[in-house]
Amino acid sequence: MTRQQSSKTILMVEPTHFESNAQAINDNTFMNKPEESIDVHKMGVEEFTKYYNALTEKGVNVKLFQPRGDGIETPDCLFPNNWFSTHSSEEMSNTTGKNTLVLYPMCHPNRRLERRLNIIDYLKSRHQDLDIIDFSHYESDNKFLEGTGSFVLDRVNKNAYICISQRSHKDLAKQWCDKMGYTLVSFESLDSNNKIVYHTNVIMAIGTKIAIICLESIPNPQEREFVQSTLSKTHTIIDISKDQVNNFCGNVIEVQNEKSEHFLVCSKSSFDAFTDSQKDIISKNCNGGFITREIPTIQSVGGGGIRCMIAELN
């Protein structure tokens, strides 16, 4: 088998503890304090459920988990892609050749509680030869690397893109690439308020044929040119603006269903913010089209979009 960029099976965690995460709001500029009149918990669950149904209706295989049941609240548990990632034996063919699970060090203490044995046990059950790489012990050194929030991966060409931030430590990223057989492409990214972007996956996404990225968010011209030239070797680039980033156009993901149809999964706000020409390019390169629903509460209060809600299973 050849390496695949997008997954046919994904994992999601229902946000039954959803609320504003006071620990994370200081370095996530996409988070906003909710209005008192809004039932954040109810709205979060409703938005999540509509999106889950939209994915399954298109034939996407979704493994759905509930949050912790021990009374410990994990308000960001619906963003599981930050604490683990999975990698197929084909993807690891130039290193161990084994199916691999990676566990990551999380910046904020209440997000570390999202690592759950029942999910890890499920991931172990999928492959008998599973290799586990655990970076979580770096939390004690205040070094963090938050999964496919920190990394945007070109799994076919083995390039790992990362904007360096409090949650994305460059030395750990280098270690990860050494173990995983990837080439590191690191850069600094600034948002519309000139603050460091906390996660790479809010400003870029990589599909099978297209790469969506906000090039203007990379202030260093050498870094910007290197990122652009590396992506353009293998992908059609869709360059989005910082305003489009604020509408979560970068926080999207390509998935497949059982028929191998490719879809771009994006929120309603990002779909509306894409230009007609950008939508046309996406549609030509994703034969299943778009899967889109409104998730305004999750985006505004949680500070993450649909891509953050999806953990790929490979």
TrEMBL record:
It holds the Pfam family DDAH_eukar. InterPro entries: Amdntrnsf_FN0238 (IPR014541). Signal peptide: none annotated. SUPFAM superfamilies: Pentein (SSF55909). PANTHER family: AMIDINOTRANSFERASE. This is Amidinotransferase.
